[in-house]
Fold this sequence. Notes:
Radius of gyration of chain A: 21 Å
Shape of chain A: globular
Strand content of chain B: 5-15%
Oligomer: heterodimer
Number of helices of chain A: 10
Number of domains of chain A: 3
Amino acid sequence: MKGYLGIDVGSVSTNLVIIDENDNLLTSHYLRTRGQPIRAVQEGIKKTGADSPENLEIAGVATTGSARRLAGVIAGADTVKNEITAHAVAASHIVPDVQTVLEIGGQDSKIIIIRNGIVVDFAMNTVCAAGTGSFLDHQAARLNVPIEEFGELALKSNNPVRIAGRCSVFAESDMIHKQQTGHALPDIIAGLSEALVRNYLNNVGKGKEILPPIVFQGGVAANPGIKASFEKALEEKVTVPPHFDVMGALGAALIAKRLMSRSDKPTRFLGFELSDFQYEANSFECEDCPNNCEIVNILVGGELHARWGSRCGKWDQIEEKRTG
Amino acid sequence: MTKIGIPRTLSYYTFYPLWKTFLEEIGLEVILSPPTNKKTLDLGVQETVNDACVPIKLYHGHVMALKDKVDFLFIPRLVKADDKNTFCPKFLGLPDMVRFSREDLPPIIDPTFRMKSLRASLFGFLYNIGRQFSASKTSIIQGYLRARKAHKKYHYLLNRGLFPSEAMENLNSPLREIDFPGPGKEELTLAVIGYPYSIFDPYISGNLLKNLQKMGIGIITPENISSKDLKTFSRYLPQNFFWYYSNRAAWAALHLINKAKKIDGIIHVTAFGCGPDAMLNKLLELEAKHHDQLPFLSISIDEHSGEAGILTRLEAFIDMLEHKKKAEGSKTA
């Protein structure tokens, strides 16, 4: 049986998905990246391998997410795709007539506008992370509420307080003020959810034509409070797909399948054994010009496998030989 | 020989051949700051007021790279490009901003550049500079003529499709020896709209142009549009911008959208916090939308923007254009 592996390595989570030839999802895993993308990928591959059917043969691999290039080298990916395309592919697969995708992850958020199955517009948040998962994580910790209960609590509110969500620093002082004046916890949490949604729609969704069906995915979609705030603000039904937290990986798996079914080349996948390989990354500062680029070496079993990081491209030679 | 330093940013992309030719003609040695690098940016951020946009910060960084190597700094106060177009207020105040940033700077030569037109006002402007360095009348006149010629040729080369670095390299080559880009054989051609000091500085633009070229994308920038074509669209908007570079960018985009019709999308490169761009960006977005939903991507640059973030957006944008083209192809087939 043939399977296709998609790996999405983001700042907060690393997700792996395997689909079969009929696009059915066979396994899915969600792991915390914890700042160690190489280990996260290895661990994910190990778990995925253990969960897969005996006779499964991986026929294609694609990686996405902010560490897509690194993950691509580690796993031996057939293609490396940006996360916007991956999320759009996955959303269109689950909801074929989708017109708007709202995606909120750990450190970034995006909106994707789709018409007739084709991406026609998109936007990502800029450097500010005020409208993302890490903002919620941080505030939940402040309020002493486990993030898993955050959404349910928000739904209990009848009278959300108004919190400035433009900037997480202001939001925090605003929130403390509301606490000190005696507002109930659910009202504060609901207020925070609304602030996040308002910030998202004003920043990322600015000027975009948000038409239904609307799909809401990414880690933050686990939060029913945010979903409810979106529905209130947009006055439309918002769908959270069953695999909302691994949609990037699902998209990558679908991309791998489409690519490999058109090609007669064998996959470059290094096999589930790669979880036992010795990967090592080290870096040095190139001193050949004042840019002082930080060059990263990726070693597999002590042997230099890939290298990147230079602005001028001179250190990238090895990598280009391998993939070219 | 007296050394005069010119920072390699801002008006450099428009006027360097003119400044250089004239200053050398009156007997000065022109020193250009090195291409932007990490140190330029770090020093610039350190020496500039916090609220300034990143191009202004970079300018200070280039000044820092020159300050110990030259006897004078050449920082003309750019006020008006012609009777209608004013430069951004930060250009107007640039010599003062630099002068008060540090105490150990060499003297700043800051003649006021206020043109009715180059033909009418350039000579007076250059004459005053020449007199400041006690240059002879003959050398000033000679310098003026040669500088105008260099300026004209430089912009001719840009109009023929070269980028500033290529045009400067080829400034003295005979035309028949120059390898001009032919009519686009690329699958996709994009208009990259923005100010030359943002688009053409590979460091601050996250290597935007090179990354696009690597993906096989054809590129047209405002600098590649002739002044005749720009002028046509100077009568298109009910109200133009006040600012020279904003008008050029707007008119170039309008020309490419309405008349040339050979672009598959627009990328607007804007510096974070740029006042004029608050309007220009929206104008471009709406114009693109009104013309068959022409794909539009806005890329914001600042001192924190890394190449990775820009690359993700570019890759997604190109994916989108390719899928769109494929879908349109299968519809017509």
